[in-house]
Amino acid sequence: MKPFEISVLDLAPVKQNKTIHDTFQDSLDLARFVEKLDYKRFWLAEHHNMASIASSATSVLIGFIANGTSKIRVGSGGVMLPNHSSLVIAEQFGTLESLFPERIDLGVGRAPGTDGLTAKALGRNPMIINEQFPRQIRELQQYFSSENSEGAVRAIPGEGCDIPIYVLGSSTDSAWLAAEFGLPYAFAGHFAPEMMSFAFEIYRDNYKPSEKFPEPYIIACVNGIAAETDDEAKKLATTLYQAFINIIRNDRKPYSPPVDDMDEIWNPMEKAGVLQKLRYSFIGSEETVKRQTENFQKMFNVDEIMITSHIYDHEARLKSYGIFRNVVDSLS
């Protein structure tokens, strides 16, 4: 089994009866906690018009987390690039890299990170996304290059900054793109498991080495909920299940505390749909999630597993990430 790194994807979850200020403080506390445990990176994901997720101003929040930590890499998982001007993103991340040298990652995706109406409000044109997204990645690379010092349009800050770009995907389209561009690839297995295996195969088989990334590099994002016992972890996971039910029902309320019986909340069709979407979720005691993690890595041989954890209680969330650190150490 190939050794692998471990990282965090944080959605800045907003919980019932908590403020967004509380959310940001919890995210910072989590980042400091996992930094002490030598997690590799801490990424934040761009979403909009969701009362349960507060990471819409992703670049601003990255700065907050990076300023409150000292060594862990901090970045976007991701910035939804067609929502933005390439130049603005180059300037924002150039500013971040200048403030926190050698600690900033730029993960980019093509999805809106929201519903159709909000995507329209963000100024997206769905008719040109498939050509716009690759072009914007090339624009970012140009803005970050030292050679662009002679260009008519320059990113200041940004020019000459060594900011790694990661291509995010939840289908096979971005696998082809990441392979063609010679960039690392991060897959959203935490909510889109159906195409993950095929996407990894496409990426590896078609990878074109680049100067910065001579070898393919894969990050797999999964749901992770660990606790003292399997039963405790399963109850904590009901917050995750409720969050997905809320998406299905278009009910965008903050995250709910765990419940004793999900069957009182979802119907059989909803249950089947949620569990299928969450098939790559490691839920249980340390022994159980160790077995799940080991089986996953034997199957996919990724370079990095990025864990996102929908746990309502903050202390239980910290404890879960501590357990996963123990798991990875025991497998290395």
From TrEMBL:
InterPro entries, A to Z? Bact_Lucif_Oxidored, CmoO-like, Luciferase-like_dom, Luciferase-like_sf
Q: Spell out the SUPFAM superfamilies in the cross-references.
A: Bacterial luciferase-like
Concerning Pfam families, the annotation shows: Bac_luciferase
Q: Which CDD domains match?
A: Flavin_utilizing_monoxygenases
Domain Luciferase-like positions: 20-298
Give the similarity note.
To bacterial alkanal monooxygenase alpha and beta chains.
Q: What is this protein called?
A: LLM class flavin-dependent oxidoreductase
